[in-house]
Write a structure and sequence with these properties.
Layout: H1 4-10, H2 13-27, E1 33-40, E2 47-54, E3 66-71, H3 85-96, H4 114-124, H5 126-140, H6 144-164
Antiparallel strand pairs: 1-2, 1-3
Helix pairs in contact: 1-6, 2-5, 2-6, 3-4
Length: 165
């Protein structure tokens, strides 16, 4: 039986926060759900975390886990974080030294097709895009997701305690 009070007692917020942040980076832009699980060790001294790729959105592992959160799938990429494809392209050139064959994406009027330039970066500079995403998450991470999870664990622990009384 799950013991939310034990989980609340053992869980380390900083460890959870680091795990959630790294999982967010890995799951960003996936088109399927990813569940975040917590497990209490058999000797009840430690909490570990794991992810479960939940392609259909209605599956789960049949074990004694605690479901902490679900990262919902979405159809987006790092370019969607910018106001325009032009802004994304310039950012990637300036910060990650990507090189674009602009002549390939420029029409006879001299207009650059930044949509195609962004696609070119996404297809040819995967490592740089991953690094950019990681840097963006690190810079903007404020632990809000972790706070929400910790509040939920505490609420379930309190609910469990009240049911026993």
């Amino acid at each position: 039986m799950k013991n939310w009070r034990k989980l609340a007692e053992l869980i380390d917020r900083n460890t959870l926060d680091e795990y959630i942040k790294e999982e967010y980076k890995k799951t960003y832009g996936r088109t399927y759900d990813t569940d975040i699980y917590a497990y209490i060790s058999d000797d009840e001294t430690e909490v570990t975390f794991d992810d479960f790729i939940n392609v259909g959105g209605n599956s789960w592992l049949d074990d004694d886990h605690f479901l902490l959160d679900t990262f919902k799938g979405g159809y987006y990429n790092i370019a969607d974080e910018f106001n325009s494809n032009d802004e994304f392209v310039k950012y990637m050139i300036d910060c990650y030294n990507v090189e674009i064959p602009f002549d390939k994406f420029t029409d006879e009027d001299g207009d650059i097709d930044y949509v195609d330039c962004a696609k070119y970066i996404l297809e040819n500079y995967c490592d740089e895009c991953d690094k950019a995403l990681s840097d963006m998450v690190d810079e903007s991470w404020d632990g809000t997701i972790t706070d929400y999870i910790m509040d939920d664990i505490k609420a379930k622990a309190k609910e469990e305690e009240e049911e026993e009384e």
